Amino acid sequence: MSLIRFDNVSFRYEEMKEDAISGVSLSIERGECIALLGENGSGKTTLTKHINGLVKPYEGTVCVDGMPTTKRTIAELAHTVGYVFQNPDHMIFADTVEEEVAFGPQNLGMDKETVTRRVDEILAFTRLDRYKETHPMSLSGGEKQRLAVASVIVSDPSILILDEPTTGLDYKSVIDMVDLIHRLRERGHTIILVTHDMSLVVQVAERVVLMKGGTILADGEVHEIFAQEDVLAQTYLEQPYAMKLSTLLGRGPCLTPEEFYSSYAGEEP
Ligand code: ADP
Known about the structure:
This protein has about 270 residues and is α/β, with parallel strands linked by helices. The chain is built from 11 helices and 10 strands. The strands form 2 sheets. The chain has a 6-stranded mixed β-sheet, sandwiched between helices. It has a 4-stranded antiparallel β-sheet with strand order 2-1-4-5, with helices on one face. Bound molecules: adenosine-5'-diphosphate. Adenosine-5'-diphosphate (ADP) binds next to helix 1.
């Protein structure tokens, strides 16, 4: 059984003439890391809002963990689906990092001891433990983004939706985010990444779902999708440079400079 399953899903916002997503079918398996790509307005956010139940389809079904989202409340789905919003400033409201992370589990009614244990574990995991008493607003952009992730994973959702987790971050913070996403996968989370950052996609995702005009234009393994220049062009996505170069030189579709370099392994210089 797939962890998330969309069957012919269509949704339209009130007073809109056209569907925001239309006839979407998609299965996501436990443990996958998927990049959801497409131009602005292509339906990425609307699709993810179906997973945490913020919107319900007018046609078709969305099942999470085998159960249609129409049969579950947003609060119930919040145990399974965590959503890390694009701008971490909008998620911050407590006076210390510790309180910020404790808010979710406290709200779920966990006892004090469990909350403290979980918060400590998650602050260590996201490498924020030394900022426990710090005001969240005085953290750097990268640290705030990690705090936003911490505040969500502390409730242990199996599915994590990350909306543009690297926007506005400097290089070091992006490296930290890549590392965090790898460790989140090792921790067992299924990850759906909504992003325009192709360099992030090639480092963390193994599957790409490409959206256009509310429909799925392509869905497949990341090399396979990025090798199709004509498909990428339809969504104004640029092929990664390593892939352009490796294809031009007949080395096959390599996603990263490291893969490109490895394609020469064993050959005479
Ligand atoms: P993306 O996340 O890819 O930018 P969205 O899912 O936000 O795309 O938008 C898909 C379509 O739905 C767009 O045409 C957008 O204008 C429309 N839309 C999104 N949110 C709303 C809303 N709250 N009310 C009306 N229309 C919306």
